[in-house]
Design a protein that fits this description.
CATH superfamily of the largest domain: Medium-chain alcohol dehydrogenases, catalytic domain
Helix content: 25-40%
Cofactor: Zn(2+)
Number of helices: 13
Family: Belongs to the zinc-containing alcohol dehydrogenase family.
GO molecular function, one term: oxidoreductase activity
InterPro entries: ADH-like_C, ADH-like_N, ADH_Zn_CS, ER, GroES-like_sf, NAD(P)-bd_dom_sf
Shape: globular
Order of helices and strands: EEEHEEHEHEHHEHEHEHEHEHEHEHHE
Keywords: Metal-binding, Oxidoreductase, Zinc
CATH architecture of the largest domain: Alpha-Beta Complex
Amino acid sequence: MRALVFHGPGQFSWDTVPDPAIQQPTDAIVRVDTTTICGTDLHILKGDVPEVRPGTVLGHEAVGVITETGDAVGSFQAGDRVLVSCISGCGRCRYCREGAYGQCLSGGGWILGHLVDGTQAEYVRVPFADLSLHKLPDEVPSEQAILLSDILPTAYEVGVLNGRVTPGDTVVIVGAGPIGLAAVATARLYSPGRIVAVDLAQSRLDAAKRLGADDVVQAEEDVEGFVRGITGGLGADVVMEAVGVPQSFELCTRIVRPGGHVANIGVHGKPAALHLEDLWIKNLTITTGLVDTSSTPALLRMLAAGRLPAAELTTHTFALDAMEEAYDVFSRAAETGALKVVINRS
């Protein structure tokens, strides 16, 4: 089959590789009909995720059709149209029994495109298929369902739920890429009083406004002064970091109010300073997190009911064999206006 293979920092290519095969009785093989590129994939290419070995097929998001299942798979069969979750869970270890599938102790967690071959390919082996796949209703288009593989549950769980957004809150989201925009969309489910989006790219700020942000601020402007001005000097109730660089995390800790929440969503490849000399007295809650995807079934019901603006997050569509072009467009988002790119089997 053909697949997008990582060869080391800054190096990848669309190669011919062996077809995946069942390795464990809990596996399924899925023909990939739709996939996409995540900001995490760009972090991998920058060398920010050194656990990814050269030769790994990238990608952790897909919609497709099962072609084969292992003998222990009980919930799915060949021919089922499914969503492939970015997280795999054994279902039996301590963390999985708590719904924290991202921390699975038995070889699950975030493994696709990370520790095992991923979804930016014609076929993918999905470990722990019974918990890692979701059947898709016919009425949910693949181009929208693909957003439930990662960005919508990540923004919702790691941003909105960890940040404890409540009605009337002032919420600031630093970074208006796909994850930040998904955070705007899912924060609105909790009726905050005001949502502010911060980014360098005007195209992404425009998208944030379309998705429900009340205010947008250029990152190069006086973000701290703006937040003080709209909160009577207090600071924001909830601040979400959706970039993954030290400067944005440190900004988040400066604009949150005493007693507020900072929810880090971004993937960080470098240390960030934690100014405890200023923060120790402020009663802050700072959370980090890898998505568990425990919210995916609920989000899928909302998507099927038309409650999530998934279509608004997609800007470009490519054929599977144009993967390298898709990476080029996605990586130059400030120039191309790319948000989420959808990659379909021809």
